[in-house]
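Format notes (please read before filing issues)

Several people have asked whether sequences and structure tokens are stored in separate files. They are not. Every record keeps both together, in the order shown below: the sequence lines, then the token lines. Line labels are part of the format and must not be stripped during preprocessing.
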Amino acid sequence: MGPDEIAKTILEIENAINARWNNGDCTGFLEAYREDVTYFDPLTDRCLIGRQAVKEHFDKYFTGAPVVRSDQFDPKVVVNDAGDMAILTYNLENFLAGKDGSLQPIPLWNCTQVYRLADGKWTIAHNHWSFARPPGAVGNASA
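Then the structure lines:
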């Protein structure tokens, strides 16, 4: 597989995972993670190591109202020369349903994922989520 084909494959996997998440099913990410995945998001105070640790984190924080809509911006896949590792970056904007039925945006996300090819299957070795615009941080910043 060449870099363009690998990028297409990675984006297809990611889009399928996000579609499941938007329907309230976070197991798509868990299934895509390697057993020894490393993981960060704004709710972690340390790196989570291993699929089970991430599952416990998801169970604690990411159950409830499904995302009604999500928009992915500027996806970029960089593939190593050996063709067995790829870094995916993108921004993600999610919307939840408001009580009045309107779309309520949640903060814009930055995503970085490191995919690794092993035994013919692409899996996620590392996942890092952060807020593109941390809530409250911009107003408190000083030059």
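For reference, the curators noted about this record: Residues 3-22 form the longest helix (20 residues). The CA atoms of residues 12 and 46 lie 29 Å apart.
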